[in-house]
Structure formats: C-alpha cells, structure tokens
Design a protein that fits this description.
Blueprint: H1 2-18, E1 25-29, E2 31-32, E3 41-42, H2 44-56, E4 60-61, H3 64-73, E5 81-87, H4 91-104, E6 109-112, H5 126-134, E7 138-141, H6 158-180, E8 187-189, H7 197-206, E9 209-211, E10 230-231, H8 239-246, E11 249-250, E12 255-257, E13 262-263, E14 270-274, E15 284-286, E16 292-298, E17 301-307, E18 315-326, E19 329-339
Subcellular location: Secreted
Keywords: Signal
Protein name: Polysaccharide deacetylase family protein
C-alpha cells in the first residue's frame, strides 16, 4: 500500500509539474469590414468565426480590466481567459463587431485615438463611444494624435520629446473623461505598437499599463508597460494559426537585450535568457522567415541569441519564438524590431 501511495504521489507531482503556467490572452483588432485594408482588417465573417471558436474551445471572454485584475490576483493554471480589444474607434466596430459580440454576450474594449473622434468618415463620434459604454464596453486611451511615439522631431531634445508625449496622452485622457463623464482606466495602447524603454518609463510615471502589438500570453510576471496583444488581420485570420496564438502560454523569459527594439542593423541580435530547466527544450524563432539561434547553456540559465534569417527592411518586423507546452499549447514570446533605415527614425 505504501508503495502504491508513493507511486500515486509521484504521478500527481509529475502531472502538476507538466501543467503549463497560468495565462490569458488579449486579441487586437482594428476594422471589422470587407471594405478596409486587409493589413488592419478582418471581415465580419472572420470575426464571427473567431468568436465561435473561442466559445467552442471554452474561453471566458471578459473585459480588459477584468482580465488584468484576474491575472494580478493569480488566475488558476490552465484557465482559458481572453479579452477582445480594438484600436482607433472605427465605425465598423459599432456597426459590425458589436452585434456579433452581443450574440455571445461578451464585452470588448476600444482604445480611442481622440483627435479623430467626431470628425466624420469611418471614425466614431463621442455619442457612439457613449453608446458602446452603455453596452458595457470599456473605452480607454490610444493617445490624441496617434503618434509614432519613438520618433523624435528634427532637433528635438529628449526632454521636449517626452513632454510632447506626456501632453498627447494627457489630452486624450481628459477628452475621454469629458465625453464619458468619468476618468478612463489607466490603460494605454501604443500606436503602431511602437515603444522603447523611455516611453515605457513615461507610462510607468503616469500610472499606466501599456499594451503592445505582439503575440504572446499574459502571465503574472508580465511587464505591465509591455503587455502583449495578439494582432489579428485578414492575412492571419485562419484559426489553424490564430488558434495556436490564442491558446499560447507565456514563455518564461528572464532577461531580454537590447532594451530598445529601435535599430539600424539589418540583422540585429536579440538575446533571451530562459531558466536552466529549459536546456533540453526546442525553441524555434521566426522573423520574416526562420531565424538563426545560437544557444549557450549555463548553470543559471539558457541564453538564446536570435538573429533574423534575412535583412530587415525599414519599418517594423516581429520576431516570434515558440516552444511546445504540451496539451496542444505553445509557449510564446514576441519582440518588435523597429528598423530606421536611412530616415525612418530621427535620433
């Protein structure tokens, strides 16, 4: 009997150790329309399919503030928790996404770039935003002018640059408070997903959580000024690939260098440090194709040096690194390179 109990206890311990850590995911959409650019859109049919797949796979879809609160409180392992967010306050969100979400009984969050609100075209008005709030949605900050936050103006000092960003964030916050008659939550989505260490520090000083545009899951150890959100568009809307991202777990990256993704190198190196017990795990990375990985195993951790398999072009390139977590799920870590080329960024 004692031998049986020991074997049972060992089996239970092995099972517990094999269970992936807690995680939640945040999905990022822009347009829900057949008439808008594919790179920033999904069709209503694709969006409806995503909602149905989330329901079929047992996800709890909650508002972003609830997801953050539950992750911080220690959501149990194996939870399937998701939040749906939209950037820029396009009218197709109100016209096409809202009815589909109402069918499921799910709320969502809109990060509002306030300068364009009420200016006509395909952007919502303040009345539209209030209508979404009455539906139980969350409206929060995407900046006023939708700036490339890492770009400085010609001859602009660091102090002037950060003051300009602070003013843009504060102006959006004040307008949202005026329209909604209450202060919005301190959530900020980086326009274009662009940020660096200085921008993150500014958000930290202002008391904001910062949301990026990169795949990955949200676990308790997350950097709350660099929270991953899974970008979804018509090119990557198939559930075969999107489902893997949605079921993802946070890769336990302990250190990352460099601190900023801004680069002039055509093949910059990204260094990740993982726990020592990852020495035997197979990690694959992609950056516009398979990336090169140089692995060094040390007593205190595993260092991966990841370089793109081909030259970066000016603009933004995501590096995605994955490893199997078992049970049909993957550990996932994503990094954004912002390549300046000759003129993409100012010093």
């Amino acid at each position: 009997m004692n031998r049986f109990l020991l074997q049972a206890a060992a089996a239970c311990l092995a099972l517990a150790l094999s269970l992936p850590a807690q995680a939640a995911v945040v999905l990022l959409y822009h347009h829900v329309s057949e008439r808008t650019p594919a790179a920033t859109s999904v069709t209503p049919a694709q969006f409806a399919e995503h909602l149905q797949k989330l329901a079929d796979e047992g996800f709890q879809v909650v508002r972003l503030d609830e997801l953050v609160e539950r992750v911080r409180a220690g959501e149990p392992a194996q939870s399937r928790l998701a939040a749906i967010t939209f950037d820029d306050a396009y009218r197709s969100i109100l016209e096409n996404a809202l009815p589909l979400l109402k069918q499921q009984g799910w709320p969502a969050t809109v990060f509002v770039a306030t300068e364009a609100v009420g200016q006509g075209g395909n952007i919502m008005s303040a009345d539209d935003l209030r209508a979404l709030e009455r539906e139980g949605w969350l409206l929060t900050n995407h900046g006023h002018q939708h700036l490339h936050m890492v770009r400085r103006q010609p001859d602009e000092s660091e102090r002037a640059w950060l003051a300009r960003l602070r003013e843009d964030i504060t102006q959006a916050e004040e307008l949202l408070a005026q329209w909604l008659e209450k202060a919005p939550p301190k959530f900020f989505a980086y326009p274009y997903g662009e940020h660096d260490a200085k921008v993150r520090e500014l958000l930290r000083e202002l008391g904001y959580i910062g949301f990026a545009q990169r795949s990955g899951a949200v676990g308790a150890p997350v950097d709350w000024q660099n929270v991953p959100r899974i970008p979804v568009n018509r090119h990557y809307a198939g559930w075969d690939s999107l489902g893997d991202k949605v079921r993802a777990l946070p890769m336990p990256v302990q250190q990352v260098s460099p601190a900023s993704g801004i680069t002039t190198d055509k093949r910059p190196a990204l260094t990740l440090v993982l726990p020592a017990d990852w020495a035997q795990r197979n990690v694959n990375c992609f950056a516009g194709g398979a990336a090169g990985i140089v692995r060094e195993v040390h007593s205190d951790g595993v260092q991966l040096r990841v370089t793109p398999g081909r030259d970066l072009t000016p603009g933004r390139t995501l590096v995605n690194c994955t490893a199997s977590a078992g049970q049909g799920r993957f550990y996932w870590y994503s990094w954004l390179w912002m390549h300046r080329g000759e003129s993409w960024y100012s010093e």
